[in-house]
Amino acid sequence: MTIKVLLADDQALLRSAFRVLVDSEPDMEVVGEASDGAQAVEIARAKGADVVLMDIRMPGTDGLAATRMITEDPRLQDVRVVMLTTFEVDEYVVDSLRAGASGFLGKGAEPEELLAAIRIAAAGEALLSPAATKGLIARFLAQGDGGDDDSAYDSARLEALTVREREVLVQVGGGLSNDEIATRLEVSPLTVKTHVNRAMAKLNARDRAQLVVIAYETGLVRAGH
């Protein structure tokens, strides 16, 4: 199945470069380009994109607002957003993940990394560059960035999880893949996947990236541990 990709960036030259790269792959096609967030949301609704490569900083409706609009729209529940950032220590990355983005990628990433990120997001695996994403979340949430009433998850929500689901969530928060978690907990990857899916359902998380945020915001996982 062909992955339909939407490019949202205010730099036309960058969009052109991404288009050439994406369209060169047999399993992908660019279905639209947007120069601001509002336009990206409109095209996503009209074209049915699978993955949106979304720049964080754009004039008008920025990438963060556009991501919220996409993830809160029931019609776009299967659309995955990958945030593009110039700096991998961009403070908006955590806000983007909270808004429902599946992960992030630096604009300086290698072509192979970008293509892999699109495929991973399209497959619903979500968390891109686990170690880097984990580092960003740890850095900013450790500074108290996750404590506001609007975005923080009440740790009481974790009570809905079984002991094993909590154990798996801790490992997910550590940036480990299903295979790595399976090895560490001495269970099968399929069992881990089942626990991850159940945890997402109980915590109302769109994907793995949001599970990482929840793990930090509830204090289940702490920076440096």
From TrEMBL:
Pfam families: GerE (PF00196), Response_reg (PF00072). PROSITE patterns: HTH_LUXR_1, HTH_LUXR_2, RESPONSE_REGULATORY. It comes from Streptomyces malaysiensis. One of its GO terms (biological process) is regulation of DNA-templated transcription. Keywords: DNA-binding, Phosphoprotein, Transcription, Transcription regulation. SMART domains: HTH_LUXR, REC. The lineage of its organism: Bacteria, Bacillati, Actinomycetota, Actinomycetes, Kitasatosporales. This is Uncharacterized protein. GO terms for molecular function: DNA binding. Gene3D superfamilies: 3.40.50.2300.
